[in-house]
Request: fold
Amino acid sequence: MQRLGRIVMYLLEAATNPMLLTAGSDEGDDPSFLHPPLEHQGHEPLADLLARYSSFEQPWKYQRVCSIVKEAAEKGEKILIWSSYVKNLRALARLLDQYRPAVVHGGVPSDEIALPGVITREREFERFRHDPSCAVLLANPAACGEGVSLHHWCHHAVFLDRTFNAGHFLQSQDRIHRLELAEDVVTRFTLLISAGSIDDSVDGRLAEKVSALSLLMDDPGLVQIALPSADEGSGGTPAFDDDYQAISAHIAAENA
Reply:
């Protein structure tokens, strides 16, 4: 399972930004997501291509996020961008610098342990909520658990990537979708999925898990809220035992 978890991390990286494959995990990543760079001998053509990936193109997910944030900022709206990879958050922070993004991940300390003058999670949340020039929050689901409420300020969240962890998926949606919202407020979730990649397997497994959870809780509304319709476009483990078949099927299909 440990080796399988690393394989999942590589596949998720490739589906978003192939250049991450040669970088390995970031010190701010959730501990369960830590993984080394993809091993290679140094002379393979693929390794060279990955190292120079940014000179060929920009990941389509990055392009889409920039477009969404630009459109929202022009309307005076705020956007929440989710990614499990801190390196994605750092890269997007540079691309979206003009929108003064707030950034929250495992490497950003809380007020309780931070030294004076150091940027903290709480200050970043407050800046996102109340600073008109801060149009976007870049966040890691593992670092934004219960108790973080953004629903009065933000009504659109974009998932750059997701893991097989249904708990993180549901909790991340709860950050901007709460019962006390006015009836006329529409909350939107945009899922960025690379067709033919591990994203498809993750999407299918999360749909199954949320549906099963709704039956267990006798709450059909959970599916309606958590799963978008087809036209919408610590427990931090990226994969679990019951995800093995989905991962194996994806790898077998791509190698067929």
Observations:
- The first strand starts at residue 79 and ends at 82.
- The beta strands are 79-82, 102-104, 136-139, 156-159, 188-191.
- Residues 2-56 form one domain.
- The first helix runs from residue 2 to 16.
